[in-house]
Amino acid sequence: MKKRILLICLVASFSLSSCQLLDKFLNIFKKQSEPVQEEVVYKDKVGEFYGGIQSSNKYIGYEFSKSETPNEKPKDGVGNINIYAFNDFHGAVLESYDEVGLKILGTFFKEKSSKQNTLIFDQGDTWQGSLESNYKYGAIVQDVFNYSGVTLRTVGNHDFDWGLNHLEQTNNRKLNDDYIPVLASNVFDYANGRNGTIQQDNYGKEYATFILDNGIKVGVVGVIGSSQITSISSQLVSDICFTDHIAKAKEISDFLRNEKECDIVIVSSHEAISKMATSGLDKISPVSHKRYADLVLGGHAHYLQNQTKNGVKYVQWDSNGQSAGLVSLKYDFKENIVVDSSTKVETFYTYNLKTNYSTIDPTIEQMVDNYLVQTKALSEEVLSTKFSGYFDEDNLGYLMSESIYNYSKNAGKTIDFAVCNYARTDFSSSTLTYGNLYKAFPFDNEVILMDVSSSYSLNSIGYNKLYRDDTSLVPVAGNTYRIAVIDYLGLHQNENREYDKFPDARNLEILTSGEQNDHITYREILKDYLLNNQTKEFNGGDYTSSNPHFNIN
């Protein structure tokens, strides 16, 4: 594990406010990443398309065509466009009872990408979520989807979880000479408490255009929900912001319609369709005098959503590869419009994909198997065989808080409460492996020790998953308590970049490991706790809010 600067008893001077102290701590606490590779030089042909990055006095984007000399668009008749899409894959490399796995989903897309007038879009949160994917920062997922012909990716909030350098590295990752273009239209610079004016194109461009086999020109704008800056550990995104995603989508739509003369405009968003459907993207723009979008794709909410507004489809699919989808559009060449009544949405569920794609593409099979050799032993390491009952996301969160408390105590730290949030998945087996643990807690959150006193902070303790050893200890406003809390919560900021969970935090210190004071993630803390308690029984019924160790009410 990489060594970082040891922070012991960081105390504010008399003149520093609590928020200034947190800012000072955040700047030192920024996670370090490996240096970014040299700038990628893109070749003229990527996958099935010719083209690359184009820069204008307004925007920087990608412009592709299916041939070096694009076909002229017909004057009449109807053209077909097939848009395959998925979202929130979360590094679901392995097949399970409800997750299709990378091999099958990759094989599915590989077959579809060979069809004419076909595009494949990924709405973000692609890599983060499993040991197999996280082991090399999403490399295997990116490689397989690249080989499979995924046409375009839009950034999601969890794509930032390893820091900006690793986001840039994985975005630029190539397979032979191919890469997957990525959009981040509303990601801008941020400094001195203000949103900036420079779009951060190194994390994703502002638009993409594709001229298809039938001559239809498709324009795409890719955005992330502006409020999702709060869903990322604040120290990882202190230099960037997400501007109003709807305003940006409309602005670039007008550019695509008027200046790029796109026949169809698609908004690819990492935002729930339930929110996107209220955006007015189905309305007529007063600038282009055409609809802002002919199709809106979403993500982030992790479940199938499908709405129609003014003839425009707003749709997203399930997370972790549990489903993917197809939107079939028909374009009337004479009227120069999408024929709304002919738009069809189709969903491919895990069962369908497993049944119809049981024969895996041999290249994908080899790519994944060769990679899994590196992670197999880690994933299968047994941490405990003493689990019973059902552990949902809350139960596992309580178990994590218990382990943080005990780790702090064994490290010689005196704390009153340990605080974390819920897990990402459930668990219901007697044997817990490191792969299971990683799936439940895939993030690299570290633990901060801090003193807190206000009622605002005390509410944050009770709202999350806490552990207290002394069951008579009840936090009282005005008193000061020493807590151990994961960095995501401890340094959490709202949309205004104000510390909103523990704004009065004092005496911040990072919990470390061993004589070398290496930083340790909360996942490793729970792993250590399980390995050191091989005879301890873990029953899901004991890890609930009815247990006074986990409840202050």
Attribute tags:
9-stranded mixed β-sheet, 5'-nucleotidase,  domain 2, disordered N terminus, single chain, 2 domains, alpha/beta, globular
Q: Which structural category fits the helices and strands?
A: alpha/beta
- How far do the termini sit from each other? 39 Å
How many beta-strand runs?
Answer: 30
- Corresponding CATH architecture of the largest domain: 4-Layer Sandwich
Residues in helices, as a percent range: 10-25%
Q: Report the major sheet.
A: 9 strands, mixed
Radius of gyration: 25 Å
Count the domains: 2
Averaged pLDDT, please?
A: 93
Question: What is this structure's SSE topology?
Answer:
Elements: H1 18-29, E1 45-46, E2 49-55, E3 60-65, E4 78-86, H2 102-113, E5 118-122, H3 131-134, H4 139-148, E6 152-154, H5 164-171, E7 182-183, E8 187-191, E9 194-199, E10 207-211, E11 217-224, E12 240-242, H6 245-258, E13 264-270, H7 273-276, E14 295-297, E15 305-309, E16 312-316, E17 323-332, E18 337-338, E19 344-349, H8 350-356, H9 362-380, E20 382-384, E21 387-388, H10 393-410, E22 417-420, E23 432-433, H11 434-440, E24 447-452, H12 455-463, E25 465-467, E26 481-486, H13 487-490, E27 506-510, E28 512-513, E29 518-519, H14 522-531, E30 538-539
Parallel strand pairs: 3-10, 4-5, 5-6, 6-7, 11-13, 13-14, 14-16, 21-30, 22-26
Antiparallel strand pairs: 1-2, 2-3, 4-17, 8-9, 8-12, 10-11, 15-16, 17-18, 17-19, 20-23, 22-25, 24-26, 24-27, 28-29
Helix pairs in contact: 2-4, 4-9, 10-14
